[in-house]
Amino acid sequence: MAATIKDIARVAGVSIATVSRVINNLGGYNEETEKKVLAVAKALEYRKNENARSLVQKSTKTIGVIMPEVTTAFYGDIIKGIEDVSYEHGYSVILTHAGMSGARIHESMNLMGERRVDGLIIVSVELHEAEIESLSSLGILFILLSTKTNREDTPYIKVDDFSAAYTAVNYLIENNHRIIGMAGANPDDSIAGSPRINGYIQALQDHSIKVDLNLIKAGDFSFESGKKAMQEFIEHHAEVTAVFCASDEAALGIISTCFENDLQVPKDISVVGYDNSKVSHMSIPPLTTVAQPLYEMGREGCLSLIASIQNKIKIESKVIPHELVIRKSVKKLS
Amino acid sequence: MAATIKDIARVAGVSIATVSRVINNLGGYNEETEKKVLAVAKALEYRKNENARSLVQKSTKTIGVIMPEVTTAFYGDIIKGIEDVSYEHGYSVILTHAGMSGARIHESMNLMGERRVDGLIIVSVELHEAEIESLSSLGILFILLSTKTNREDTPYIKVDDFSAAYTAVNYLIENNHRIIGMAGANPDDSIAGSPRINGYIQALQDHSIKVDLNLIKAGDFSFESGKKAMQEFIEHHAEVTAVFCASDEAALGIISTCFENDLQVPKDISVVGYDNSKVSHMSIPPLTTVAQPLYEMGREGCLSLIASIQNKIKIESKVIPHELVIRKSVKKLS
DNA sequence: TTGTAAGCGTTATCAA
DNA sequence: TTGATAACGCTTACAA
């Protein structure tokens, strides 16, 4: 079907080697042959076969990305960062999701192996010993984004969830809040759950505020878990003046339930979210929230990976700084 | 580095042909050799090279996806549909974005061509004559999602934006609204802009309501364009009782500005959005909005494409039904 | 400056 | 049931 360098060679009356040289701009041929080859290539609508080239070069110029099922703007931003950098460096990205709580993770890794991606980026998936094992056995360079493992040798880029949560709660305390609830975090999630809860606790303790475990409402980071938490605060802990949420969506849930119960944010209750997702500035009131630089995370991760591929250097893990984006959902108490 | 079938053949003492047969479960070998080959393959941690296979089979089992720069949950859902179907059929998806208003579209298509994807899905990108031309010249099967061209022969799947807008406005009219504004649509966008505006106009006309072009506030589907539109309504058209928005984000902008001006939704003003994005049920009040079945669109599109690849049949364009999701942002006037 | 030919890891044809 | 071998489209010594 499509023309190959053989076709060009035949039509142009040169060898395939020469065609290859011209196509790849390698030099070492006179202008005349170059012109002829280029003309024929154009006439035949030649398009190089990246696959065949990969085979001999033993490099596919491809980055694999594995992420969880969830489809939020969160991943969109990271992907965009990855794709931009890949594009700039002549790499393509091949994408797969690992299924709810990583059910499909092994198939995903296998697929990436068979496709011979040059590097692998795993986003937000919690990896256990078995997965790390098969990941290493793939023999493919990889980096984790927004997640990590308990092994030293697995490189990652993420923010420090503990200290980000600490910052957020500290901000509430600075605004004179003393009875602060927490909502939306899953304590069994050792990446995004427990560290944020611990950050919350530490901030309170550092200010000599007694920690009341009843004020920590577990959840799954969802809007609904925020709603439910606020319902419980209203029923049993009317004394709460502020809530720190483990996600923006949970924060919106808090606000929504407040609204239904005629409580005003931030007048009656203050709220801080986590993610700085697109919705956080669309809410009423605009949400004060912890920002993770997602796009940059995607970029940086992909950049490190490609550098590592090209220079065969080890990837350094990196904790990137978070930021508290202050909008209008927190009231300063006097 | 990684073991090949040659290595297996050598170690197992059989020919590479036999190894290939065993690996691919083709039958025609006795149990003993099968066991031996499988054992050696395992021992050597053999992993097939999908690339090499692609070369001889002239099929990469790969679907290319091109979409615009924008990173919203909108695309996430579509991608997920595509990826799920691909996965189920043993295809991989390779993703690229075409840049702001398609700036990178040619490079993207080129890339997909060089990667020899078996099929191509283009999401939401407006295609002009030049692009369609080079798309056809690629000789790759493709389908458009949530967009179309003015040519008969380019298959697409999308909802009918005109009639979806009509439905939304009609609903407002049924609720006895007579002075209805429109916000957020870009009239120059022939896919998602003008058809929605026209649907709005037609619905009014069919109910003998005079169309006031001043009530149509153009925009770019963003939160900000919604805010701006509402500001203008408040200043110049206080008589407006309802606003139809070309996106949920614009609708949130409307609500936000209303809130700042002490107008309550839906008590003082009713709002209908478009997209049924995740935020639409998180807003205050929950948003009545037009739903496009994004995930299904991704699935169906990918399904048609793969069917077309495998059976060499032509892809039929399809207009899929929209739905009006009724929540709480519209008030019935008496 | 150009061509010949080997080889990348497979599949597939044909013969044994 | 098995094995040789050509082929897929390309890059890259090496030779001319």
Automatic annotation (TrEMBL), chains A, B:
It comes from the Bacteria. The keyword DNA-binding applies. GO terms for molecular function: DNA-binding transcription factor activity; transcription cis-regulatory region binding. Keywords: DNA-binding, Transcription, Transcription regulation. Residues 3-57 form the HTH lacI-type domain. PROSITE patterns: HTH_LACI_1, HTH_LACI_2. SUPFAM superfamilies: lambda repressor-like DNA-binding domains, Periplasmic binding protein-like I. Gene3D superfamilies: 3.40.50.2300, lambda repressor-like DNA-binding domains. This is Transcriptional regulator, LacI family.
